[in-house]
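Assemble and predict.
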Amino acid sequence: MKTFAQLKKNLKKDVSQLASIKVAVLGDTATQFMVQALKAEGIGNNINLKIWEADFSQIERQVLDPSSELYEYSPEFVLIFRSSHKLLLRYNKLDLSSQPKLADIELALIDDLVANIHKNISAKVIYFNYTEIDDSVFGNYASKTESSFLFQIRKLNYKLMRFASQNTNIDLVDLSSIQNAIGKLKFTQASIYINSEMIISFEALPLVAQRTVDLITAQNGKIKKCIILDLDNTIWGGIIGDDGIEKIQVGSLGIGKAFSEFQYWVKKLKNRGIIVCICSKNTESVAKEPFEKHPDMVLRLDDISVFMANWENKADNISHIQSILNIGYDSMVFLDDNPFERNMVRENIPNITVPELPEDPANYLEYLYGLNLFETISVSKEDLERTKLYQTEAARVQMQSSFTNEDDFLKTLEMKSTIQAFNDFNTPRISQLSQRSNQFNLRTIRYKESDIKRMAKSDKYFTFSFTLDDRFGENGLICVIILEKLDEITLFIDTWFMSCRVLKRGMEYFVLNYLASFAKEKGFTVLKGEYLPTPKNELVKNHYIDLGFEAKDSYFYTDVSNYQIKANHIKKKD
Amino acid sequence: MTMDRNEILKQLNKIFIDVLDDEEIVISESTSANDVEEWDSLNHIMLVVEIENHFGIKFKSNAILSWKNVGEMMDTILEN
């Protein structure tokens, strides 16, 4: 970490080419140096933070007055720093009966500030939580005394988290964690505070600026999505090729604990949506063995999206990983214990993040915690599912690249499809797809849930839903067919839509084979199809012709009594 | 502190140049904040911390705003 003096040198750089972001800073103590640190840190991250700084202790006035300079400036971010020191002063003045209400009083005020800002401008509020001060009035007993300042400050921080978790207009910078990491005596220098109202010491400022700018850049989409790991002496101790699976250090052997804890950290990242890849100079089968067989390994093969173990250079392997995942290098982090490899990757892949791992593996985790690499602004269920999609897609692409023949590739996918009529369980998904499906949709008739239920019960219709799973994972329900009985011999394909996720997999052949045999079994002889063009479904213009239907009077017909089965590699799952 | 006043002044001058970001600054024992344009109350705080770090000392709170010139600042440094 740079010192404040070193960081400040950034302020001399030319910022005219940098993207700029308008930020307002409001504090109840002196914030001038913080503003300098933020600007300098921003420039270090290629962002020109244009900061308007409110006069000392003007938070309420600026926020509550709709014609204030704050609103005139119209920033994208409003940074509010209300210090624990001033909070303590307010607490000191409360009568005894009000002391247990301090946290609630403060939170009501914060709520009010955030609501007012939101009412006036569409800026996001960045709020610093409270660094702990123990005034030692109650000793250890403070922890069980609601009226103690320590109790109230912790309660306030907790309530602030609850508040922020339910309010999209506010994000928190965890100032308290920063003080915990560097120590209270270093975070605030008492003599400087007393003389200048400056709470955050020069020593702490670069760290505070880093955490704050991390949050701002994450809002602007600069986030890490992928972590690429070396193996030997990075995720386990020793060299698998030399030491063998019995002697690598992970779990209880040697300093294995350091590596196990590191692996748990990676696993947690993976569980929250970060893609994990391996890039190692090793023979693939040897490198994979611990993942498959070592009892103490935390990471397993199914945690890894792309596993590159070979003797090629690492920069080439990483660019191969990039081509599979199709994400920017600036969203990737590469961890390797070997300084040579780190430099090689750094020199060849400019935007990738390559931390200087400490020499002692015992220090890996604390060092990585300090870097705060995985800032994010939201974690949704979708993120977690997206990871799984990346994983399966990565596996497919990787596999496909080893086949020159598409058909050979499809053969190895071991695709299986479950076919079901509409029922209570699949109705919501079917109706959702019916509303959304645009490209592979022959007639684009939208059905609501009530329509779906009605047709499921009607004698006039036959309904079908298809899933598609393969050896890499599940795609879920991806195709829907509704057949309407026109007369004794004809079935009309009222609805045929499919998810584009499964294009080029032979799904349409599998579906038609099934429909033909179904029709035959029920005594029908003709399938009749129709294509209704929309601005978005050009993709399936020739769908029925390609499937061997004959065009007549703007409809398409096929005779199922002498139907030729279309070759594909999908099996029906019972 | 075993350094003589000249040596301390030389080292202080270098800190002033770094912190105030001005290569031209030359200070003497009689130099005061009025004589150096960039030496405002804000930069004074940064000077104090850099001087503390450099000499490995901590000034008392009541000393920080008490010096009338560089010479008095040096007196305090020598007391530590």
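The first strand of chain A starts at residue 19 and ends at 27.
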